Amino acid sequence: LSTRILRIDSGFFYGDFILPDTLAEGEYFLRAYTNLTRNYGDQNLFMKPLPVIGLNDKADPGQTRLEKTTENGLSITADKSKYKTREKVTLTIRSTDNEGRPWASNISLTVTDMRQVVPIGEIITIQNGYPIDRTQSFPDISFKYQTEFGIGFMGRFLNDKGKPERTMLNILQLNPPNAMYTESNDEGIFRQTGLNFNDSATFLVKSQKTKDWVYGKTELLGREKPMIFLPHDYRPLDVIKTGMPQRSISEYEVPSGTRLLEEVTIKGPKIEQEVRPYRTYGDADATISEKNIKLGFPNLLYSLTGIPGLYVSPGAQEIRFVRAKYQSNFFGTGAGPLVVVNDVPMFGNSGQILSMIDPSTVESIQITKRLKPTYGAQGANGVIAVYTRQGITNTDLQLTPNFQRLLVRGYSTPRKFRAPEYSVPMNDTSKPDYRATIYWNPEIVTASAGTASVSFYTADLPGRYRIVAEGVTQNGLPLRIVYYIEVGSD
């Protein structure tokens, strides 16, 4: 029903969903996966039940389950035994190994008001849902699904007769500006990976077979969705129909008078960026800098002529490394060198790929003749790495109507958790504070000292707060603890 694409940084990510008011009450499920994990079977993807109840309903308090605050390497201590409403709470989180020594870890912490959020007990926690079952075998793994690095998309090219066709494609990204090149296969399918942008981006695509008119049609293909396997061990939620709203929305969550603003354009001087050194393949055998690229010639192959050990025929769109006098790749039938654009491998004829690159968009070229095991058999005939300029503008790209537009979804931007800060005198304290979720922080790091501290303010309703902390240690062991604090009316 709703999907997010989230950026993974050092093995961690977080995000959020806004449930629409049109969503029917019932049993829903949250599923999370990467492309690589699909190789272990869609039935093994992470899935957790999320019951959704009506505005006038509440969970039966008879389902309340107070979990024990047993420590498994993770502990929480509060600076006081009891708090007043709108009072500051400071928690200290400690993670240790089996011998009590400090242990670096990444923790996510949630604080909820038990009067509004009934603690029904969770079937799936990080302790039973995260660890890999090393006794389970996966005999049918074929690794059909490859690891994704950044945002990618797949499309299909159809010729003027509506038939799939193999062709070289120019792909221009508008924001941030970038130039890419790829080749569709016999079924017209092409893929582009290694992109990095939020929300969405527009890509302009055209076949190399045309310069001044639109040829064929390019269509964006949706991501293949895994099959849905509902878990059998979830427990339906017992709900009480009250006939009156059970949730008081605080203005700290949705401020009154909120309105959508018109678009604002901000202009300023260009920030010159430092040229980044590329060393993906180690030191290159030869490097062509921007000033030595032949801009007066129709394609990039002309800039590669004259390199020792490299045979280039711009007219025939051929390029080969010549490694020995009597054992030359030029006279063989093997593939040419692997072409990489901005560290993304290009698949297809290397001569054709290089011939379709506009020299004016190129910042540098690195040539590596030797075998590169980084890309396995693909790098057996050497690597030609092309890096485009970071400052390409729409004017530089000379966009014409023969490009077709594709709108591609990027990373979702997580919302920032909103909570009042009562220590700031300028804040309006006259607003009622009925928060159900008091605090949420998915990015707590205990580091090598094994400790971290967080602070937040209590709301207006007295009662008990439930604090749940889950995380993993630096070597991947799961951690979890449940802790409670009391909030009084005075």
What key phrases describe this protein's structure?
single chain, 490 residues, mainly beta, five-stranded mixed β-sheet, 33% strand
Shape: elongated
Helix and strand content put the structural class at mainly beta
- Mean pLDDT, to the nearest integer, reads 82
Query: If helices are DSSP runs of H or I spanning 4 or more residues, what is the number of helices?
Result: 3
Q: What strand line-up does the widest sheet have?
A: 5-26-25-7-23
- Low-pLDDT residue spans: 273-279, 325-333, 392-400
Summarize the amount of helix as a percent range: under 10%
In N-to-C order, the SSE pattern is: EEEEEEEHEEEEEEEEEEEEHEEHEEEEE
Beta-sheet strand percentage? 25-35%
Radius of gyration: 29 Å
The CA-CA distance between the termini, in Å, is 45 Å
Largest sheet: 5 strands, mixed
Count of beta strands:
26
Describe this structure in words.
The protein has 490 residues and is mainly β. Helix content is 3%, strand content 33%. The protein is built from three helices and 26 strands. A hairpin with a 4-residue loop joins strand 16 and strand 17 (318-321). The longest helix has 6 residues, at 350-355.
What does this entry show, briefly?
By secondary structure, this protein is an all-beta fold. It is 3% helix and 33% strand.
Secondary structure layout:
Blueprint (H helix, E strand, L loop, with lengths): L25 E7 L13 E7 L4 E3 L14 E5 L3 E3 L3 E8 L9 E9 L12 H4 L21 E8 L9 E6 L4 E6 L5 E7 L4 E8 L9 E5 L17 E3 L44 E3 L21 E4 L4 E4 L16 E4 L2 E3 L3 H6 L6 E7 L14 E6 L5 H4 L6 E6 L27 E9 L5 E7 L5 E11 L4 E11 L2
Parallel strand pairs: 5-26, 18-21
Antiparallel strand pairs: 1-2, 3-14, 4-6, 6-24, 7-23, 7-25, 8-11, 8-13, 9-10, 9-12, 12-22, 15-20, 16-17, 18-19, 20-21, 25-26
